[in-house]
Amino acid sequence: MGDEIRRNMALFPIGIVMKLTDLTARQIRYYEQHELIVPARTSGNQRLFSFNDVERLLEIKSLIEKGVNIAGIKQVMNPVSKESEDATVVSELSEVKRRELSDAQLHRLLKQQLIEKRPGKASMIQGQLSRFYNKK
DNA sequence: GTTCTAACA
DNA sequence: TGTTAGTA
């Protein structure tokens, strides 16, 4: 269960998630309004996304590209689980880590995340994140 | 400089 | 969805 916390650990601000997913801030916030994702918040009300959130966004993105609308996605995707909802917000700690998190470290985290042994989801996520982490 | 909410071309 | 206004 150590992996659970790692995936639900809120680490990145919307700017990084934009690069990771290739979605606009508008879209990301819009999907949150429709409860497709429930990112954590810092004490200053800034969103903090976890790997889980990024995965969900990538899944949403792929569905959108297939022509599915929000209503359709809501039916296909499981509602946000309770664990991923609260197993997070180490606000102070996360904010500190966020400052230290940059290119090199982000790549390391992404690689570590992508290498995890997960048959189903891993493949899709890897395909879409590879863009980001193979460049620069 | 970045992110947030709200609102409208 | 894009984009802009006014903040924090």
Walkthrough of the structure:
The protein has a two-stranded antiparallel sheet. The longest helix has 16 residues, at 119-134. The chain is globular. The protein is an all-alpha fold and 136 residues long. Helices cover 66% and strands 3% of the residues. The protein has a domain at 1-77: Multidrug-efflux Transporter Regulator, Chain: A, Domain 2. The protein is built from 9 helices and 2 strands; from the N terminus they run αααββαααααα. α8 runs antiparallel to α9.
Quick tags:
9 helices, Multidrug-efflux Transporter Regulator, Chain: A, Domain 2, 136 residues, single chain, DNA-binding
* Pattern of helices and strands: HHHEEHHHHHH
Distance between the termini: 33 Å
The total strand number stands at: 2
What is the class of the domain at 1-77 in the CATH system? Mainly Alpha
Helix/strand class: mainly alpha
Cα-based radius of gyration, to the nearest Å:
14 Å
User: Could you report the average pLDDT, rounded to the nearest whole number?
Assistant: 75
**β-strand amount:** under 5%
Protein name: MerR family transcriptional regulator
Keywords: DNA-binding, Repressor, Transcription, Transcription regulation
Organism: Paenibacillus montanisoli
GO molecular function, one term: DNA-binding transcription factor activity
SSE order and pairing:
Layout: H1 2-8, H2 14-21, H3 25-33, E1 40-41, E2 47-48, H4 51-65, H5 70-76, H6 82-86, H7 91-100, H8 103-115, H9 119-134
Antiparallel strand pairs: 1-2
The chain binds a DNA duplex (9 and 8 nucleotides) through residues 13-15, 24-27, 29-30, 44-47.
Protein name: MerR family transcriptional regulator
Keywords: DNA-binding, Repressor, Transcription, Transcription regulation
Domain HTH merR-type: 11-79
